[in-house]
Amino acid sequence: MTVLIILIFLVILIISHELGHFWSAKKFGVRVDEFGLGLPPRVASRQVGETKYSLNLLPLGGFVKIHGQQREEKEFEEPGRAFVNQPISRRAIILISGVVANFIIGWMALSLVFAMGIPSKVFISQVIPGSAAERAGLKANESLEGFSSSEEFINFIQANRGRSITVNGKNVSVPEEGIIGVGIENFNIPKQNPFQSVIKGFEAAVEVATGVVKAATQIIIGAFSGEEDSLKQVAGPVGIFSIISEADGTVLLIYLLGVISLNLAVFNLLPVPALDGGHLLFLGIEKIIGRPIPRRAEAIANTIGFALLILLIIMVTFKDIAKL
After folding, report:
1. How far is C-alpha 7 from the chain's CA centre?
2. What confidence tens digit (pLDDT) does each residue in 56-66 have?
3. Which of 49, 50, 110, 160 is deepest in the core (most CB within 10 A)?
């Protein structure tokens, strides 16, 4: 079930991102040669008008092949409709449209969460090393089953000083001082009317996106300064698998979809070659110097950027596995 949910999430997020590029390109009259779900090899395809729609074997992404986007093409069938021949402003809008689409998906998902509401839940925000909670196997971000408020959980612990209790199916020996070594927080979202839910959803989306930017900045600074824990805040495919498997209820899954979509929006804006943000960076340089950067330099930068992304994914995946 978790694998199925992840695949559904990927389809929604990939399609929304690529549809952003697709829609804006079509809006400006730029020719779209192919819209692909997944990465080649191609499994099936169908030509509709000037655009080929394809289903590909590897469910690891998606793509929109825009006419003239690859600068190494020497001749274009329709030069006036080629991406490379469009004004910088149009090219920038086409590039950023995928990010905007992911932000909108995140915004709408969080708005739906506010419209439905989430009952009060209690979860562990941190586990102190060497504590009774850690010895029992309790972990951070774990929901506390059977408790509707932090006060209720604290009273339960205090009432069982010096005893062995069961928390989330784990045996915890409560010290006489009544401290098991966890930080706990309440989480709930009151149900809002449709108008308020859209406003609250937008505010929450901006807050999440801002938080991702701050976290990414800290991670980058930490990585360059040699901090070993700089990747702890990042969740890769394995981490997302674990998070989704622990999410209970449709509303929480919608919330998770929104948060992941907003993370992808920010991630794609990073000024790294091979990402939308990297291409926007190249457009900015082109605007400043008055001409496109050399094709070879762009190709080398994209190759290095792609290699760094793969390295980051590998590092994050190993971190995720270590947490399991």
Report:
1. 14
2. 887 767 889 99
3. 110
